[in-house]
Design brief:
Layout (H helix, E strand, L loop, with lengths): L15 H22 L2 H6 L1 H15 L3 H14 L4 H13 L3 H14 L4 H13 L3 H13 L4 H15 L2 H14 L4 H13 L3 H14 L5 H13 L3 H14 L4 H13 L3 H14 L4 H13 L3 H12 L5 H17 L31 H4 L8 H83 L6
Helix pairs in contact: 1-5, 3-4, 4-5, 5-6, 6-7, 7-8, 7-9, 8-9, 9-10, 9-11, 10-11, 11-12, 12-13, 13-14, 14-15, 15-16, 16-17, 17-18, 18-19
Length: 469
C-alpha cells in the first residue's frame, strides 16, 4: 500500500491478496451451492441441468475452469432460471480475473434473486474494483439491508466511501464493521488511512500497529503503509525498517522492495537502492513506476545509457500522454545535453505528477495513495520542484501585484493631473469671461457717458445764448 502518491484506478482490478480473499468468499459460496445442488428438489426439477452443474463443479475442483464454465452454460440452456449456475459463473470469471463478465453474471443472478445479499456484496466489491464507486455503494448498501455479513459489508462500504472522499462516512462504516467484528485487521488498516486523511497521523499509525498485532505480527501491507507515512514525514530510516519488514514477510511483494529502494535512495545508499530496484523489477517488470525509480537512480549515478534504457522501458508502459511527452523530452535532454534535473511535479501542486517512486496496490483492490495524495518528503525531486514552483508562483503574483499597483498609481496621477488641468482651464475661462464682461460693461458705460455729453453740448447754445446788443 502507498500513502504518498497518486495512482489512478483505470480498470486494473484488484490485487492478488484481495483476489485470494474474494475468491475464498466466492469459493465458500460455491461450496454451499454444491450442497444445495445435491438437494433432490432442485435435481428432480431439471435432472439434466443438475447433471451439468455437478460436472461443472467437478471440473472446477480439478482446475479446469474453462470446462466448468462450459458446463454451467449448458446447465443454463437447459434451465435459464437456474440462478446458482450464474453464481457459479461469477466465481469462475473471478478466478479468470475477467471482472466485467463476472459483473454481468452477478446482474443475471439479481434478475432472478434481487434480494441475494451475497451477490450484492460480491457485486459491490467488483464494481469498486472497476472504480464504479456509485454503483458499488448502491449494492453494498443493499447487501447490508438484506442481511449480508455486517463486518464485511460495512468495511467494503467504508472503503468505497473513502475512495469517494467521504471520510466521515467511511469512518462511520468502518467503525461499525469493527463493532461487529473486533478482530478485523483489514478494517484497522482501512481505518488507519481514514485517520491519516483526517490529519490524525498518530491515530493512523496506531491503527496500522493494531492491524499488524491482529495478524499475529505479520502484515506486509500494514508495514508498508506505516512506512509510507513515516517516509512522508521525512523519517526515512524508520520507514526503511517498516518497508524491510513488509518485504521480508512477503518476498514477492514488489512494491515493498521498490519502497526499500526508495528509502535507500533517499539515504544515499545507492548500491542497496539499485539492488532493491532490480529485485522489484524482477518481481513486476510491468510496473512503470518501478522502472522510473530505477531510471532516476541510474541517472543520479551518471549511468546515462542504463537510465535511458529504463526510461524507454517505462514510457512504453505509460498511458498518460502528457507524462509520456515529459519523459520523451527528458530522454532527449539526456542524450543531447548530458542530463538535466528532471521534475516529477509536486503532489498536490498544479504540476503534472509522475505516479511513483511510491506507488502500491493494496489488498482491497485499489491504491490507498489515490485517496491520500500527500506531499513528497523534503529533499525529493518532487518536493524541490514543488518548492521552486511555489516560489515562482509567489514571485509572479508579487510582480503582477506590483505592476497592478504601479498602473493604478499611474492612472490615479494622470487622472489628478487631468482634473487639475481641467480646473485650471475652467478657472481661466471663467476669468476671461469675467474680464470680457467687465470690459463690455465699461465700454458700454463710457459710450453712454460720451453720448450724454455730446447731447448736452449740442443743446447748450439754444438754451444759454447771449442776446444781441
Amino acid at each position: 500500500m502507498n500513502v504518498s502518491n497518486v495512482i489512478q484506478m483505470r480498470g486494473k482490478g484488484m490485487s492478488d491478496s484481495w483476489w485470494r480473499r474474494l475468491a475464498a468468499l466466492s469459493s465458500g459460496l460455491l461450496v454451499a451451492l454444491v450442497v444445495a445442488c445435491a438437494v433432490p428438489e432442485s435435481v428432480s426439477a431439471k435432472p439434466s441441468a443438475g447433471d451439468k452443474m455437478q460436472l461443472g463443479e467437478l471440473m472446477f475442483f480439478n482446475g479446469n475452469i474453462d470446462g466448468a464454465i462450459n458446463a454451467f452454460r449448458q446447465a443454463l440452456v437447459l434451465d435459464p432460471k437456474l440462478w446458482t449456475a450464474h453464481l457459479n459463473l461469477v466465481n469462475m470469471y473471478i478466478q479468470k480475473q475477467d471482472f466485467p463478465t463476472a459483473i454481468e453474471e452477478c446482474r443475471e443472478v439479481l434478475k432472478i434473486k434481487p434480494g441475494n445479499r451475497d451477490v450484492h456484496l460480491i457485486l459491490g466489491n467488483l464494481l469498486r474494483a472497476q472504480n464504479d464507486l456509485d454503483g458499488a455503494a448502491e449494492h453494498l448498501k443493499a447487501a447490508i439491508d438484506n442481511g449480508a455479513s455486517p463486518a464485511m459489508a460495512h468495511n467494503a462500504l467504508g472503503l468505497t466511501l473513502l475512495q469517494k472522499g467521504d471520510f466521515n462516512g467511511a469512518e462511520e462504516h468502518i467503525t461499525a464493521a469493527l463493532d461487529k467484528q473486533k478482530k478485523f485487521p483489514d478494517a484497522h488498516l482501512t481505518l488507519g488511512v481514514v485517520k491519516f486523511k483526517k490529519n490524525d497521523k498518530e491515530g493512523a499509525l496506531k491503527e496500522f500497529d493494531m492491524a499488524v498485532q491482529q495478524k499475529g505480527g505479520k502484515y506486509p501491507e500494514a508495514h508498508n503503509a506505516k512506512g509510507d507515512i513515516l517516509a512522508a514525514g521525512g523519517s526515512w530510516k524508520e520507514a526503511l525498517v517498516e518497508y524491510q519488514k513488509a518485504a521480508e514477510e512477503d518476498p514477492k511483494y514488489a512494491q515493498a522492495h521498490a519502497n526499500v529502494a526508495n528509502a535507500y535512495f533517499q539515504l544515499n545508499d545507492l548500491d542497496k537502492a539499485r539492488e532493491a530496484y532490480l529485485k522489484a523489477r524482477e518481481l513486476n517488470p510491468q510496473d512503470k513506476n518501478i522502472l522510473y525509480g530505477l531510471a532516476l537512480m541510474y541517472e543520479k549515478t551518471d549511468r546515462i545509457p542504463e537510465a535511458l534504457a529504463e526510461f524507454q522501458n517505462a514510457v512504453m508502459l505509460e498511458t498518460d500522454p502528457e507524462m509520456s511527452a515529459k519523459i520523451n523530452l527528458h530522454m532527449q535532454q539526456l542524450r543531447t545535453q548530458g542530463g538535466m534535473q528532471f521534475s516529477l511535479g509536486g503532489l498536490g501542486s498544479s504540476a503534472p505528477t509522475m505516479p511513483g517512486l511510491y506507488q502500491n496496490i493494496n489488498p482491497f483492490g485499489t491504491s490507498f495513495s489515490d485517496m491520500i495524495k500527500i506531499k513528497p518528503p523534503p529533499g525529493h525531486a518532487a518536493a524541490k520542484q514543488e518548492k521552486s514552483e511555489t516560489a515562482a508562483a509567489a514571485k509572479k503574483e508579487k510582480s503582477e501585484a506590483a505592476a497592478a499597483a504601479k498602473q493604478e498609481k499611474s492612472e490615479a496621477a494622470a487622472a489628478a493631473k487631468q482634473e487639475k488641468s481641467d480646473a485650471a482651464a475652467t478657472a481661466k475661462q471663467q476669468k476671461s469671461e469675467a474680464a470680457a464682461a467687465k470690459k463690455a460693461k465699461s465700454d458700454a458705460t463710457a459710450a453712454q457717458q460720451k453720448s450724454e455729453a455730446a447731447s448736452a453740448k449740442k443743446e447748450k447754445p439754444e438754451g444759454g445764448a447771449v442776446p444781441a446788443r
